[in-house]
Amino acid sequence: MVPMRREAGPMHDSPRARLARTAAVLTAPLLVLPACGAAADGDDGVTVLTSAYPFTFVAERVAGDLATVENVTAPGVDPHDVELTGRQVAAFGSADVIVYTESFQPAVDAAVEQADRDAGVVELGEVVGLLEGDEEHDHEGEEHSDEEGHSDEDHEGHDHGGVDPHFWLDPSRMASAAEAVRDALVSADADNADTYQANAASLVAELETLDEDYTAGLATCERRSIVTSHEAFAYLADTYDLQQYPIAGLNPSDEPTGAQLAAITDLVEDQGITTVFTEELVSAAIADTVASATGARTATLDPIEGLSDETADDDYLTIMERNLDAVREANGCS
Questions:
Q1: For the chain, where are the E strands, in sequence order?
Q2: 20 to 30 A Cα–Cα from 237, which one of 21, 65, 77, 300?
Q3: C-alpha span between 59 and 146 (Å, rounded)
Q4: What pLDDT sits at residue 43?
């Protein structure tokens, strides 16, 4: 059964409408905030602006209590489609450090471009090395065309520039991100360099332990395939020798066509896959449809794009450990 596409509305409007509102925000009069370099002046301490939760986690751990860290994506909001207020746009010009990934959040890219600054900008995609995204996310060689309801317009506003931004699901890349944030904080606040370096070293050590847990925990499994709600787990799969089969594309709002849904259903049955993974922040309806049609169960595999009410007391590390447990159970790992 082909899932109905959401109609544009107050909560799920069209990409053109979102881009139009972003342009309006960027050209509107902005609040005047303190100029860059507040840390050097010793007025208000270091300010760090992040665009999504994984970057906020890193910035808070490395900065400790020496900086104010603000995430422009509120808890419970899908970061792909975040819209910025005028105050947030202005903050891209005034924060001491900006941490983001290009081609992940169009509104953020536009705000960074408007800020037009050289210092204090940490674009993590350049730091960690991003994987190419599977724009078609075919299943078993499936092809689709405009006649199948999968036109170019369906993806307008969801272009990730051909790369997959979800690098934080690889702990080793997160370690590289931590070091980049450390360097930016040291540049902004050299007096506290020792603290930033110590905090970063502590976080990197924890991430190395997490990587070791995944390597050992996924070494011997009955299956190495994971069926996921959207194409967010390529780094997890690439690092730990898994095969990801996403139902939707890089953006979870890119719903599958009927042909794609049929192909993923056949794949689950043919490979004897026992679990279809759902996730936080997006509807589980399509994953539930696949599970119901195949007799598979559903379980949560969190892409950690943001925290929800259910995960408010967790952090990146605890959610990653829970993801490991979920994959091990689903794939019969010993």
A1: 46-50, 67-71, 97-100, 121-123, 131-132, 163-164, 225-228, 243-246, 275-278, 297-300
A2: 77
A3: 43
A4: 57
Hey, what are 255's tokens?
């719903």
Q: Please report, for the domain that includes residue 90, its CATH number.
A: 3.40.50.1980
Residues 181 and 203 in one domain: yes
> Cα separation of 328 and 305, whole Å?
21
Phi, psi of 2 (to 5 degrees): -85, 125
pTM of the predicted model over 0.85: no
Confidence band of 133 (pLDDT split at 50, 70, 90):
confident
What range defines the domain where residue 89 resides? Answer: 20-124+163-209
User: Taking residues 177-206, what's their average pLDDT?
Assistant: 98
Which of 209, 234, 267 is a domain's end point? 209
Tell whether 30 is covered by a domain: yes
Give the C-alpha separation, 44 to 25, whole Å.
26
